[in-house]
Amino acid sequence: MLNPTEIKSIVSSGEGFNAEFKERLPTNLKSITEEVCAFANASGGVVLIGVDDKNIIKGVTIDNSKRSAIQNSIGEISPPLQCEFYIVDVEGNNVAVIEVPYGQNKPYVLSGAIYVRQGPNSQKLTTVEEMRNFFQQAEKIYFDEASCKEIDIKKDIPKENIDTFRFEAGLVNNTSDEQVFSNLKLISNEGYLKNGAVLFFAKEPERFFEKAVIRCVAFDGLDKRYIIDDKIMAGTLFQQYQQSMIWLKSKLNVRYDIENEGGKARKELWEIPETVFKEAVINSLAHRDYYDKGGRITIELFNDRVEITNPGGLVSSIAKNEFGKKSSSRNPLIFGLFERMRLVEQIGSGISRMRDLMKDEGLTPPEFNTDGMFTVTFRRPFDFEMWVNKWVNNLSEKQIIILKAIHENLAVKKSTLQELTDFSASAIDKNLEILKKEGLLEREGTKGGVWILHYIYPKVSE
Known about the structure:
By secondary structure, the chain is an alpha+beta fold. The protein has helices at about 5-15, 30-40, 65-75, 130-140, 155, 160-170, 175-185, 195-200, 235-250, 275-285, 330-340, 350-360, 385-390, 395-410, 415-420, 425-435, and strands at about 20, 45-50, 85-90, 95-100, 110, 115-120, 120-125, 215-220, 225-235, 255-260, 265-270, 295-300, 305-310, 365-370, 375-380, 440-445, 450-455.
């Protein structure tokens, strides 16, 4: 049973993977039972009724009939789930507490549906793919939720790593480290630190998970023949993220825009927006398959592109046509900790944000390959004329004019291409087909669609 101090600590930490707040008792009690079911299908959690979404304790009044109704609603979960339900007086305000244990008999079903926890939200599984993925995960247990029996919490968890997390997560100082770990459910039922916590807080997580690192490699050229830099980024997942961003900044072109009078502030302008890489690196750390002990995350930099790859393709619960619109985490505990640090935002928004940022800068959209490994490729900006002269000099002058017009405006109309080349409509179509066959061009969408220019380096005709 939680005491008032522990409840205040949970409230100050805010909602997350293991905590859900309700300001008042909803008319539809099933909405609370859905949260309970989702917690049981994850790693357990706590529902606090009488706390608003701004982390303020408002208090709630629950009489015996309402208490009975809540317990009856929870009793509809199958198989039966034993939850603690009680009222705690917190500085004169009554808070209703529902403590949900880690479910030992997954899946837990409510009204024929399975609910799961994704970050700070609960969702209903609605497709065969989502259910298949859940059963696969439930059978082997989420990697980040499994116990790490080799680690010594007192010896292997430095205070500075906890302090860094607390600072980034905005956790109050009057909550002990032990209470923070308890609130975030980082300790298993057996008393061991969970794998996800080891990756976030251990001094050298790679001692326990050798491949849980990022390898950053820079190549001179367009292929992997000539390596000019090769570094392993180790440490906590946050440290790996920081080190990788520093490495990328050192390799990419970064200019500075002086803002305000007197040059008081300088804005860094990366050749590819910095936020794009933040999204991609965090995504790879949060969603990689840590069960794959033979692979590790790689960041590979070439003269024309940057590729970020992590073990594990698209999660089976996400259909390819829903990629970028929905999200399902392989590592909900890790994702939840990143969310606490405000390094991930709305679930499922990262892919669209990367696409929008590249588009806003006039860059080629990111390219995703989800088969086997998950890879995102970012094309670097370059001098169009130099590219054409060096790599595609087998094209005619008019074909180069067409490519340049598309390079400058992906939504350019055929009528504009006719004006620029003095070609007929049929001649434009013929030359567009040639460029498509060369692998340089494709059309996305029909009416109102755009061109996609592939900045590849085809063989030059002899």
